[in-house]
From TrEMBL:
Residues 1-19 form the signal peptide. This is Uncharacterized protein. Keywords: Signal. It comes from the Bacteria.
C-alpha cells in the first residue's frame, strides 16, 4: 500500500514541474548548455525561449495547450507595448537578429506582452520579474546565438 501512495505522490510532484515556473512570473533555468526563460500564465499557457551558443534561438508559445513557434508548423507574433514582431524566433538573418534583440530589450521593461498565434488567438504574457530574469543583451549572461555572416 505504501508503494502505491509513494508512486502517486511522485506522479503528482512530476506534473507540477511541467508548468516551468510560477504562474504570473518570468523564470529561468539552465540545463545541458541551454538557458531557458519562461513566462507562465497557467498550466496550458506560456511563452518559452531557449538560448545557447551552439543552436539558434528557439521560442514556443503554448496557448490553450497548443504549441506554436519553433517546433510547430504554426507560428506566432509578439507585441511588446504595442510594437509588433512577426516570428521573433527567426533570427537567421541580420534583420531577424536585430528584431530579436529589440524585442528582448523591450520585454525586460514591458508593461504588456501579447502573443498572437497564426490562427488568431491572443495570450497576455506576464511581465513580472522580466527585468531580473532576462539578462541584458550586452551582458555576459546573454547567450542567445544569432545569425553569423
Amino acid at each position: 500500500m505504501n508503494k502505491y501512495l509513494f508512486a502517486t505522490l511522485l506522479l503528482g510532484l512530476g506534473s507540477q514541474a511541467w508548468a516551468y515556473g510560477e504562474a504570473g512570473h518570468w523564470s529561468s533555468g539552465w540545463g545541458q548548455g541551454t538557458s531557458e526563460y519562461t513566462a507562465v500564465v497557467d498550466a496550458k499557457n506560456n511563452l518559452y525561449i531557449a538560448c545557447n551558443d551552439i543552436k539558434k534561438v528557439a521560442m514556443t508559445a503554448t496557448v490553450n495547450g497548443k504549441e506554436y513557434g519553433s517546433y510547430s508548423e504554426q507560428g506566432f507574433a509578439i507585441e511588446v507595448d504595442g510594437t509588433h514582431y512577426d516570428t521573433p524566433y527567426e533570427t537567421e538573418s541580420r534583420v531577424g537578429e536585430n528584431n530579436f534583440f529589440d524585442m528582448w530589450d523591450k520585454m525586460r521593461k514591458a508593461q504588456t506582452i501579447t502573443v498572437i498565434t497564426a490562427d488568431g488567438q491572443k495570450l497576455n504574457v506576464p511581465t513580472k520579474d522580466a527585468a531580473s530574469v532576462l539578462p541584458a543583451t550586452k551582458s555576459q549572461e546573454f547567450d542567445c546565438l544569432m545569425w553569423n555572416e
